[in-house]
Design goal:
Elements lengths: L1 E2 L13 E4 L2 E4 L1 E7 L4 E10 L2 E11 L6 H19 L3 E5 L7 H20 L3 E5 L1 H9 L6 H11 L9 H16 L4
Parallel strand pairs: 4-7, 7-8
Antiparallel strand pairs: 1-6, 2-3, 4-5, 5-6
Helix pairs in contact: 1-2, 3-5
Length: 185
């Protein structure tokens, strides 16, 4: 798990009302999720006064030869830990996209179900976005390639390097997208 090095608000202060010349604004903390059975990416992004700040990101990995139910339980338990630690108010996740590999789509669908259940138990509002919406929100074009999305995530969050692995970068893109489309969510 990666954490911001120069994050000014302390963990647990995400509900603090901040006064500025523009008025009173609440820091919005969003959990982005990139669900998958083998690797579920997560990213925590704060937003205030038109600025994004990466708080943390990482992946929840499960081992292929572990019983299926234990893999889903591991995703659930680790995501609960992430929520308990960072206390997001909202979440953003990509809608399920079926390409050619329908067998892996089943595992992604099950991981999405676990993630959705976890968020519902914590009463965290979830916004779901198509792959094209995510590309559009992050890069300005729905035709962007994965590498361009990762570069823009780095730029928007003022990171020194592109976040790795790619599931974590996708999760951060999901959080940015949620903030982009949900100004009055």
């Amino acid at each position: 798990m990666q954490s911001a090095k120069s994050f000014e608000p302390l963990p647990g202060t995400e509900n603090v009302i901040i006064k500025s010349r523009a008025g009173t604004h609440k820091v919005r903390r969003v959990l982005g999720i990139d669900p998958g059975l083998a690797s579920t990416g997560f990213g925590i992004v704060d937003y205030k006064d038109g600025r994004y700040r990466m708080v943390s990101y990482g992946v929840i990995e499960t081992v292929a030869h572990t019983p299926h139910s234990e893999r889903l339980l591991a995703i659930y338990n680790r995501l609960c830990s992430v929520i308990d630690e960072f206390k997001p108010d909202e979440a953003g996740m990509e809608t399920l996209y079926f390409a050619r590999n329908t067998s892996s789509a089943m595992g992604v669908a099950e991981a999405r179900g676990v993630v959705t259940l976890c968020l519902a138990q914590y009463a965290i509002r979830l916004g779901e976005y198509t792959p094209n919406q995510i590309k559009q929100a992050v890069t300005g074009t729905a035709a962007a390639c994965k590498e361009l999305v990762e570069k823009y995530v780095k730029i928007l969050l003022a990171l020194e390097t592109e976040p790795k692995p790619d599931h974590a970068a996708d999760a951060l893109a999901g959080a940015i997208t949620h903030l982009h489309y949900s100004s009055v969510f």
